[in-house]
Amino acid sequence: MRIASFNINGIKARLPRLIEWLEETRPKVACLQEIKTMDDGFPADAFEKIGYKAIWHGQKSFNGVAILADGIEPVETRRGLGINGPNEGEGEQARYLEADIDGVRVGCIYLPNGNPHPGPKFDYKLAWMKRLRERATELWALEIPCALVGDYNVIPEDKDVWSPKAMAGDALMQPESRDAYARLLADGWTDAIDTLNPRGGVWTYWDYQAGAWQRDHGFRIDHLLLSPELADAMTAAGVDKEYRGREKASDHTPVWVEIAR
């Protein structure tokens, strides 16, 4: 069973690339972030045509998450974490969606970026991470196979970025961000990519600016966290790096984990 995550950076603009990736790699579950569309604009029919069922949580122009499953309907178990955005009167942003798929609970995450730091957006990031940890604790208590995957907007360690110095002032690398992520791992969740690539040097994001892709100036912010029930069954995990180099690509690349089920 392959569970994948892909920050698509606009589902309408990248739909041909997304369909291409799904057909070429055929993950059982694909979690998408930054779909950047209202619910009524989600292209569910395009996924139906290639055998994928979908649920989604949209928002106009920003954010948005979706879960696709190959040949099976995802059964939604949670929509949102009940935490409002950083602007007064904004309400909750579309950043979390959770479903049961073929005996596995999957949470799709688009964690706040947090820039500029310091400021209300960074405070919101930390508050969101605290609420995520609370939800992770609730899921842990169920003792079910569970994966919390997506764009965490956290560079966990210096080995996960091309230049720690260049990113030192970014919200993605602040001690508070890293500590909040580390607390999830300390609770018993397994970072699939890191576990199989302990020396680091694996990137999932390359900025569109300053030739970052061409110079391989990237970092790792897309993560696959597994409960013990899934971590024990993990057989492989990786990054589909080549998709970042295709025409009209997202600035992220897909990440995936293979589970023996």
UniProtKB/TrEMBL annotation:
UniProt keyword list: Hydrolase, Magnesium, Manganese, Metal-binding
Parts of the chain that traverse the membrane: none
Annotated Pfam families: Exo_endo_phos
UniProt keyword Hydrolase, yes or no: yes
Catalytic residues in the record: Y110, D151, H252
Family membership: Belongs to the DNA repair enzymes AP/ExoA family.
Protein name: Exodeoxyribonuclease III
Organism: Qipengyuania oceanensis
